[in-house]
Amino acid sequence: MAKRGTYAKGVARREEILNTALTVIARNGYSKATLKQIAEAVGLSQMGLLHYFDTKEELFTQVLRRRDQLDTANFSLGKGGLISRGESSTLHALVKHNSMVPGLVQLYSRLSIEASEPSHPAHEYFRERIANLRVSFAKEIAAAQESGEVPADLDPENVAITLISLLDGLQIAWLYDSSINMAEHVDLLMDRLLRR
C-alpha cells in the first residue's frame, strides 16, 4: 500500500513541476528559464528536479505536451472549431493566446528545430504532434467541405499542412517582430479559404 501512495505522490509532484515550469518558461522564456529557477519554485534542488525528469530537454518536452493538453481543452483543437472566421475561430483564439506567452512560443520554436535530429529527446514528440494535427485538421476541413463551408476542390491534407506551416512560420516571424499580428494573418488565410 505504501508503494501506491508513494507513486501517487510522485505523479502529483511531477504535475506540480510541469505546471510550475510552464509558468516560469511562459514568463522568462526558453533561454532564461533555468533548471535552478524551476527547482527553486517547487522547493527542490536541481538534483531533486532531475529525479523526476532526466534532462532539461525531457522536462521541456513534457512542458510542451502539457501546453498542448491545455490548448486542446481551452481552444477546442480538433473538435470542429477550426473552420470559422475572426474571433470565433479556434486558430484566431490560439494565436492570440500565444502572443501572450512568448516564452512558450520561443520554447516551441527553438526545440522544434533542435528536435529535427532523430536522436533528439523531443524528436518523437514533434513527429507525433505534426502527424496528429494533420489528421485532425484534415478531418475538420473535410467535414467543412461536406457542409459547403470550404470548396470541394481543395485537398484537406494539403490545407492541413498549409495551416500547420502557417502557424509555425508566423510564430518564428513574430519572435523577430512582435508587431506582427498573428491572429490577423490567420484570419486572412481562413477568410480566403472560406470565400473561394
From TrEMBL:
DNA-binding region: 34-53
Gene3D superfamilies on file: Tetracycline Repressor, domain 2
Record has tRNA-binding as a keyword: no
Keywords recorded for this protein, A-Z: DNA-binding, Repressor, Transcription, Transcription regulation
One Pfam family hit: TetR_C_6
Source organism superkingdom: Bacteria
InterPro entries: BetI_C, Homeodomain-like_sf, HTH_TetR, Tet_transcr_reg_TetR-rel_C_sf
Disulfide bond among keywords: no
Domain HTH tetR-type: 11-71
Protein name per its UniProtKB record: TetR/AcrR family transcriptional regulator
